[in-house]
Amino acid sequence: MAEQVTTDLLVSDDRRHLLHPYQIFDSYLVDPVLPIVKGADARLIDNDGNAYIDAVGGMWCTNIGLGRDEMADAIAAQVRELAYANPFVDVTNVPAVQLAKKLAELAPGDLNHVFFTTGGSTAIDAAFRLIHFYQHCRGLDDKRHVISRNGAYHGSTYASVSIGGKEGDRPPGYQFIEDGIHHLTSPKYFRCEAGRSEQEFADDLVAEFEQMIASLGGPSQVAAFFAEPIMGSGGVILPPADYLQRMWKICKENDILYVSDEVVTGFGRLGEWFVSESIFGIQPDLMTTAKGVDVGLLATGGACVLR
Ligand SMILES: Cc1ncc(COP(=O)(O)O)c(C=O)c1O
Known about the structure:
This protein is α/β, with parallel strands linked by helices. The protein folds into two domains: 7-67, Aspartate Aminotransferase, domain 1; 84-306, Type I PLP-dependent aspartate aminotransferase-like (Major domain) (Aspartate Aminotransferase, domain 2, 3-Layer(aba) Sandwich). It is 31% helix and 15% strand. The chain has eight helices and ten strands. It has helices at residues 7-17, 57-60, 69-81, 94-106, 120-137, 158-163, 198-215, 243-253; strands spanning 36-40, 43-46, 51-53, 113-117, 145-149, 181-184, 222-227, 257-261, 286-290, 302-306. The longest helix has 18 residues, at 120-137. The protein starts with 6 loop residues before the first helix and ends with a strand. The structure holds pyridoxal-5'-phosphate.
């Protein structure tokens, strides 16, 4: 067994060499950092032996818990058999085919094709690119605007963070894609104008969507709508009843692609494989997923699923 590194050394090496996602630059050199060294089931253990409940599930991804021998064995067996094979163009491999088939079986409606990515952000990027390519192939190059919501989190790459709508993800000085990406009001009933019933609030949200489509020049200009079934990082926001179904119907009536971002909600988090259809009654045109697909065990781990 490797000799235990002291907590002080880990902390000082971390500060010297590791740039964390969402690092707070103003204070990171003085604020404490917590070195985690082990995981078992839903617990994380720090370098001094203290245990913590991994309440977020990693970053919403350790859906089956940590330290599972059968997963380590399965990964080791696959690494021995075939660790990597280039899947570009006309070469394929057994695990990729089998996982794509399984995802197609589990995905809602007629989503039957899977494009694997390295995570949720790149699944959103893939969806964004495919949407524009699809509209182009139909001869509809003007149909290029995409609509998302304030408070949404869709990832941290350039395109996915731009599609997201969290204020905290837009620090001054960062550049975002602003041309062609638009944001509607968050479906957060708790923060809506005082005195509105949940139904009235949903009516407002739907009307705002219709107005935004009109203001962009009508459906001929709008390519897609992106939405998490339940906003995760934006505050775990359960939308008003019927809201998602009504947004989906508007998409269908206006030939606008509905992208359901199930990166967090998929793979059992809500007791279902995916929730778009089974809980919310919608059949998206594209679905993005990640996290629970590899439960945080591998560096690869996302997919954009489409017809
Ligand atoms: C809804 C949603 N979409 C996309 C992402 C990005 O996924 P990843 O962190 O795998 O890039 C996240 C990450 O938390 C997410 O919550």
